[in-house]
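Quick question about two entries, pasted in order.
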Amino acid sequence: MLNARRALVTGSTSGIGLGIARALAAQGAKVMLNGFGEPKLIEALKKEFPAYSGADISKPEQVHALVREATEKLGGVDILVNNAGIQHTAPIETFPAERWDAILAINLSSNFHAIQAALPQMRERNWGRIINIASTHGLVASPHKVAYVAAKHGVVGLTKVVALETATTGITCNAICPGWVLTPLVQKQVDARAAQQNIPLEQAKIDLLSEKQPSRQFTTPEQIGALAVFLCSDAAENIRGAALPVDGAWTAQ
C-alpha cells in the first residue's frame, strides 16, 4: 500500500517507534530510523533499516538537519511520524527545571521543528501524512507528570493547528494517544513494582494496568503500527486533526 512512500520516524530504535517503522516498511515504505541505543543494537537495526540517524532532536538545528538527511537518503519525506519522547515523574514543587525543559524540547518542540522542516515538500507534492504520537496524557492528566502531560496536551493542540492549516490539501495530520504500551521503558516499571512489592511479574502487570486501563491489557507496538499504516491510507484521507486514543477505555471513564 505504501510502495514509493518515504517515511521518517523519530525515536524509532525501540518500542512504539520501531513498531511503527516496521509496520510502514511491511507495506512497502522506505523508512529512516532515528534514535539512540547500544552500538550493537544500532548496528543490527541498520541491517534492517539502512537509513538511520542519531540526531539529537532536543536541538532544533539537528531536527532540521534530520529532515534534510532523510530527504537526501530516501529521496523525500512523505510520512513524518513524531514519536520520540522521554519521561520524568516528581511533584511539581520538586520537579527539576532542567527536566521540564528537556521533556518539552523532545516531546513537543521537536514535533514543531520536524513538521516545519518537512511540510514544504509535502505541499509541493500535495500529499503527506503527519502522525504525532501523543498519549492518553494528551487528553487527561495524572499526578507527578507535569511536564509530560503539558507536552502531550501541546502535541494534541499542535496536531489540530496543522490539520486546519492543511485542511484543503492532500496532507493530513493526526495524533495517536496510546495508554499503557508494553515497551522496554514500561517493562522496567513493571519489574520495579514486582521487586518492590515482592509479587510475580504478571501480578505487577495487572496491578499497573488496573490503576488506569480498564481492559487490563497492554496495547502492543504492532497495534500502534497498524493504526499508523491506516492513517497513511486513502481510507483515512478525511481523518484530520484527530486525537485517537488506543487506551483500553482509559479515557472512557
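Here is the second entry:
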Amino acid sequence: MPTEDPFLYTVSATATEGTPLASVEEALLESLAGVEQGITDAELIKAKAQLRARLVFDSDSVTNIAHQLGYYETIANVDLFTTAPARIAAVTLEEVAAAAREVLMPANRTIGWFEPLPVGSGSSK
C-alpha cells in the first residue's frame, strides 16, 4: 500500500513444531537476499497481476472507490490512484531490485521472535 512516507514492511513465518526459530529466520533472510539480487520475470508478472487484481477488488463498489479516492488524496493525490495501473505495468526488474536493495537492507531491519510457552507451563492468569 502506498504511503506518503516510508512505512513498516512485515515479513513473517510460522515455524512447524520442532523447527528451530533460528533456522526460520535464516531462511527468511536468505529469501530477502535473493530479492535484493533481483526477481525473475515470472515473479514480476505474477506480482503485477496480483496488484492489478487488488486494484479491481478495491474498486468493486461505489463505497470502495470513494474510500480509495480519499485514501490516495491523503497520502499524495488522487492522480496516484488513477495512474496506478499504468505505473504498475511500467515497473521493470531493475527497478524492483533497486527498491529491494534500498528498503530491505540489514540496517532497516528489526527482527523478533514469538515463541509461545509449552502448553501447561504458563501462568493461569
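Reply: The mean pLDDT is 88. The chain has one domain: 21-108. Hope that helps.
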